[in-house]
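Message: I would value a second opinion on how I read folds in token form. Give me a protein, with the fold worked out from its sequence. Write it directly below this note and I will take it from there.
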Amino acid sequence: MSGKFSFTAILIVLAVVSLCAWAPWISRGYAAARAVDSFNQAWVSVVDGCGTNCKGCGAVAARRVPFGVIVTIDYACGMIPADRPEYHQQSNVFVSALGTAHGFPRP
């Protein structure tokens, strides 16, 4: 009886891990919005910090990877002389299957 139980438990664990690796509930659009919101929230209280309130800034790409989505965000920091792409920076943000954002620059 214990052998059958452990086999069933292993199958259930494998099914859950496979589903989390695929993460169908995390769409590219949701991940992009989550990455930009998390980035902006991290910088909200920093005077002259970084933000996505510039022309062409925000989520510029998103690709599905195991256990989530990697979103590339474009942003600007400090007082830039002009709102032009050469003054912008990019960073990759990982949005996990749990909906948490990781890897963006913080103050």
About this structure: DSSP finds two helices and five strands in the chain. The longest strand covers residues 68-77.
